[in-house]
Write a structure and sequence with these properties.
Radius of gyration: 24 Å
Distance between the termini: 21 Å
Shape: globular
Helix content: 40-55%
Catalytic activity: oxaloacetate + H(+) = pyruvate + CO2; (S)-malate + NADP(+) = pyruvate + CO2 + NADPH
Cofactor: Mn(2+); Mg(2+)
CATH superfamily of the domain at 293-478: NAD(P)-binding Rossmann-like Domain
CATH topology of the domain at 293-478: Rossmann fold
Largest sheet: 7 strands, mixed
Bound molecules: oxaloacetate ion, magnesium ion
GO cellular component, one term: chloroplast
Structural class: alpha/beta
Domain Malic enzyme NAD-binding: 292-545
GO molecular function: malate dehydrogenase (decarboxylating) (NADP+) activity; metal ion binding; NAD binding
Length: 572
């Protein structure tokens, strides 16, 4: 199927064209038309470097500005990969990739798509975490919009300063809980940029339709407050009314500027704000919280897929979580919701096979009054249990999920206890980056004597145990949000519904092959992520139509094909 719109000039396709005007129609004093000559070489969106052909060199006033050799995109890729592989440190590779993104965007995406297994850990988790920690000292060009308390009252104006006018996806963070690394303030921008690079590379959303945003209300990170290179406001975090007013102004300004159909992804907000913002805006805006909803969907997919290895139905299993924040309670709720749909048992009942441990021990009824609202549904009847190991012994879970943000908490004793209860314990160590993972792949396989089915949020290399190679899966929301976003855009969905998260999980689980299972994998490999994303997008879009939330008419007959044909291609 042919895509409906093709943008002039940059050879990329639009996937949600209803509101869109072409770049030409949108020319205002703030935008410039496509550059030529010297400025073309410095325009990352259109630059091709040595790959400009003889004809293009004549047409765009490039004669003499480039050396005589004409390279293919493949040759450019080869050279760049050679260069990147020479760097020892992941952060050096990260900087090389950012510089490429700022120099030649299409080459950046081509490289990322074709070498996704190697480069995902560089532009994304875990390296992006280190990059955010050091963002001030490695700062180059701004890659997104910074909205701080100084911009209060002027946010519409700030949005207008961004050169691209037809935005389809915004990733916004306030930097308070970046991965499992805590408060990184304004330097959380690195996460917004990284997530949106994945929207384009893995989900095929046009890069020019993506807008990374950091909301800066200060930071409580002393180290950053005392860091001379810190790029954010040097003050402690604003809270309460001041905080909520700024966020509200932002939400309203987005709608005013870009209309109803821009997807706003909340990323790495602290628990106390994440739940509240999602609840507040999900009925009035097209919002998605990646840490609550994206993580829930990817983990549900992993558990459903793992049933082929561990047996039983979803309803047969007992779940124990370490960590009862956004990820933990989000996953727990989506699993309970799915079981309830499958069995026709009310969700209040299906929650009872899901237990959560937080820093104070097992969440039980006697603690209910002192719990924040998002933990209350999990306060089941049980005597107090003080730590994870005791909880494993008391609850006897079949599935253990780490979402605590605290590394090395799945100890040898915990994994051994899981292995004594289960023939094939399912162990998911979700916290990021690698330093915060609840255990390593090596630990899970060794301590379970090769019996664990293991997946983790951050990537681990395959591990050989007693002659067998185990390939750990990466239970990271990166599998979900790019395809999920694409599904929203191709259907013109105006709201996110939990059933769309189930649809995404179902599509992802369906992509795991026998070959994958044979290696112990419960997710398909990232190398086929564009295909996976198209299937996720199609399933999400189908659900949006079914729920009456889709606005694109007519509904494309073959949604997988339509998703594929709508995807951004970085080929020159
Ligand atoms: O960014 C990632 O790798 C996954 C995620 O959302 C988080 O850990 O907060
Ligand atoms: Mg996150």
């Amino acid at each position: 199927m042919k895509s409906t719109l093709k943008e002039e000039g940059d050879g990329v396709q639009d996937i949600n064209g209803q509101h869109r005007a072409t770049e030409k129609q949108l020319v205002t004093p703030r935008t410039s038309s496509v550059a030529s000559g010297y400025s073309l070489l410095r325009d990352p969106r259109h630059n091709k470097g040595l790959a400009f052909t003889e004809k293009e060199r004549d047409a765009h006033h490039l004669r003499g500005l480039l050396p005589p050799a004409v390279a293919t995109q493949q040759l450019q890729e080869k050279r760049l990969m050679q260069n990147i592989r020479q760097y020892q440190l992941p952060l050096q590779k990260f900087i090389a990739m950012i510089e490429l993104q700022e120099r030649n965007e299409r080459l950046f995406y081509k490289l990322l798509i074709e070498n996704v297994t190697e480069l995902l850990p560089i532009v994304y988790t875990p390296t992006v975490g280190e990059a955010c920690q050091k963002y001030g000292s490695i700062f180059r060009r701004p890659q997104g919009l910074y909205i701080s308390l100084k911009e209060k009252g002027k946010i519409v104006e700030v949005l207008k300063n961004w050169p691209q006018k037809s935005i389809q996806v915004i990733v916004v963070t306030d930097g308070e809980r970046i991965l499992g690394l805590g408060d990184l303030g304004c330097q959380g921008m690195g996460i917004s940029v990284g997530k949106l690079s994945l929207y384009a590379a893995l989900g095929g959303v046009r890069p020019s339709a993506c807008l990374p945003i950091a909301i800066d209300v200060g930071t409580n990170n002393e180290k950053l407050l005392n860091d001379e290179f810190y790029i954010g406001l040097k003050q402690r975090r604003a809270t309460g009314k001041e905080y909520y007013e700024l966020v509200h102004e932002f939400m309203m300004a987005v709608k005013q500027n870009y209309g109803e159909k821009v997807l706003i992804q909340f990323e790495d907000f602290a628990n106390h704000n994440a739940f509240e913002l999602l609840a507040k805006y999900r009925t009035s805006h097209l919002v998605f919280n990646d840490d609550i909803q994206g993580t829930a969907s990817v983990v549900l997919a992993g558990v459903v897929s793992a049933l082929k290895l561990i047996g039983g139905t979803l309803a047969d299993h007992t779940f124990l979580f370490l960590g009862a924040g956004e990820a933990g309670t989000g996953i727990a709720e989506l699993i309970a919701y799915e079981v309830s749909k499958q069995t026709n048992v009310p969700i209040e009942e299906t929650r009872k096979k899901i237990w959560l441990v937080d820093s104070k021990g097992l969440i039980v009824r006697s603690r209910k009054d002192s719990l924040p609202h998002f933990k209350k549904p999990w306060a089941h009847e049980h005597q107090p249990v003080k730590d994870l190991l005791s909880a494993v012994k008391a609850i006897k879970p079949t599935v253990l999920i780490g979402s605590s943000g605290v590394g090395r908490t799945f100890t040898k004793e915990v994994i051994e206890a899981m292995s004594s209860i289960n023939q094939k314990p399912l162990i998911m160590a979700l916290s990021n980056p690698t330093s915060q993972s609840e255990c390593t792949a090596e630990e899970a396989y060794t301590w379970s004597k090769g019996r664990a089915i293991f997946a983790s949020g951050s990537p681990f290399d395959p591990f050989k145990y007693k002659g067998k190679t185990f390939v750990p899966g990466q239970a990271n929301n990166a599998y979900i949000f790019p395809g999920f976003g694409l599904g929203i855009l191709i259907s013109g969905a105006v709201r996110v519904h939990d059933d769309m998260l189930l649809a995404a999980a179902e599509a992802l689980a369906a992509q795991v092959s026998k070959e994958n299972y044979d290696k112990g994998m419960i997710y398909p490999p990232f190398s086929s992520i564009r295909k996976i994303s198209a299937h996720i997008a199609a399933n999400v879009a189908a659900k949006a139509y079914e729920l009456g939330l889709a606005t694109r008419r007519p509904r494309p007959a073959d949604l997988v094909k339509y998703a594929e044909s709508s995807m951004y291609s970085p080929v020159y």
